[in-house]
Specification:
The protein has 416 residues and is α/β, with parallel strands linked by helices. Helix content is 45%, strand content 15%. The protein has 20 helices and 15 strands. Helix 19 (351-357) crosses helix 20 (364-372).
Length: 416
């Protein structure tokens, strides 16, 4: 594989659109380039879909380039209409700042910003203090309303209604690029393909205002082979925060991916060499599980660290009965668990209640349906009675193992 970071991204499936392929490849072939990606502070955590831009930043950083990780404390106050059928929920400034701090902390785990290996910025630092009239005279004058309305992000919203505050978003994002070009020498902005119009607006603004040539690159908006949005599952979002989704459940998301997604995901979400990925992708039948285990281990290691990945893998193997004899209890330590009072088990607890409490299913009603469909298990014994009660007799030395379907496990421990 070429050592050029552009070719690395292209070969691994990261690229959707680019302003000038030859120019960007040449740019990344030379001295360290400052590049940036912006993330609006709409949530307290990133999810698995966010890993595409994060992994791209890591590839460029590994090639010697400097990431500028922007959280949008200012732009989140406005709301990005891209890809949305209605206006985003407006958050308070305090919540936006709290979200941004947590997102920067997550990005630090991947990019080591606090160690001087990149730059963390918040566009609230320059957007919230803008003088609106001066901004319109200096920046707004360079934007054509006709051209903005032709952008896909705005066209999709015109029929349903586009608020004036959202219409300003493209100007603010373009101004971000101009500001980062001036402050940090950023000459490349990257983002999801739904951001193409917004990013190009920044490229054009820098050309008009400072007479400089800068570039843009976007990533494909991923869906799984089944058509699901990347980073979502039946149980909800696949969060990158271990407090919101355990490393075990994160591992399970990857190890249970569709066979058709394995090669693509190995290229995008691990740093394994392409020849090793080709070998794993060539596996067929039951052997493809080895490829999924490699994907799950390395994806979990990147996000949660080596020890968490090892624990999640051991717990998964124990749950599926492939751990060495006698090692199940220790191996299961990485599995999501809940401690229940022994008194409750003495009295007996409805299985539907426990499955809802442990979030194996969203509600007791869905637990009843799962039991009726034959998908509920206690200690690997299928339960067919919707009124079944879990009690002290179900305790094993490892606790009580609940299962929903073929893949989702939860361990009950007892508090004496």
């Amino acid at each position: 594989m070429s050592s050029n970071a552009y070719d690395t991204l292209k070969q691994r499936g990261f690229l959707a659109q680019v302003t000038d392929e030859d120019a960007v490849r040449d740019l990344l072939a030379h001295a360290s380039v400052s590049f940036y990606i912006g993330y609006d502070s709409t949530a307290t955590s990133f999810h698995a879909g966010s890993l595409v831009p994060i992994m791209a930043m890591m590839h460029l950083q590994r090639a010697g380039h400097t990431p500028v990780a922007l959280v949008g404390g200012g732009t989140t106050m406005v709301g990005d209409p891209s890809g949305k059928t209605e206006m985003r929920q407006m958050l308070s400034e305090a919540q936006i700042r709290a979200n941004g701090a947590r997102l920067h902390a997550q990005l630090d785990r991947y990019l080591h910003l606090s160690e001087g290996q990149g730059i963390a910025v918040d566009n609230a630092d320059w957007l919230l203090s803008l003088n609106y009239i001066a901004f319109l005279r200096e920046i707004g004058v360079h934007f054509s309303v006709n051209r903005m309305l032709a952008a896909e992000a705005y066209k999709q919203r015109l029929e349903r209604g586009l608020s004036f505050i959202e219409f300003n978003y493209q100007l603010l994002q373009a101004y971000d690029y101009l500001t980062l070009y001036r402050r940090h020498g950023c000459t490349l902005q990257m983002g999801g393909d739904d951001q193409w119009g917004n990013i190009l607006a920044g490229v054009d603004l820098i050309r008009r205002v400072d007479g400089a040539t800068v570039h843009a690159m976007t990533f494909p908006l991923l869906t799984t082979a089944s058509g699901a949005k990347m980073g979502k599952s039946a149980g909800g979002a696949i969060w990158l925060d271990a407090d919101m989704l355990s490393p075990y459940d994160f591992y399970q998301y990857w190890v249970n991916c569709d066979d058709r997604d394995v090669e693509r995901f190995l290229k995008l979400f691990t740093f394994l060499p392409l020849d090793e990925i080709a070998r794993l992708a060539a596996l067929e039948g039951a052997d493809i599980r080895a490829a999924k285990q490699a994907l799950a281990f390395h994806a979990t290691e990147i996000t949660h660290g080596t020890q968490a990945a090892q624990d999640a893998q051991a717990a998964a193997q124990a749950a599926f009965g492939v751990a060495a004899a006698g090692s199940g209890g220790a191996a299961l330590d990485g599995m999501p668990s809940t401690t229940v009072a022994r008194e409750r088990l003495v009295e007996g607890v409805p299985l539907t209640t426990l499955m809802a409490e442990t979030q194996l299913v969203p509600s007791r009603g869905q637990a009843r349906r799962l039991i009726q469909q034959g998908g509920a298990y206690v200690n690997d014994q299928r339960i067919s009675d919707v009124n079944a009660v879990v009690g002290e007799a179900d305790l094993t030395p490892e606790g009580i193992l609940l299962r929903a379907g073929k893949k989702r496990y939860h361990r009950l421990l007892v508090d004496d």
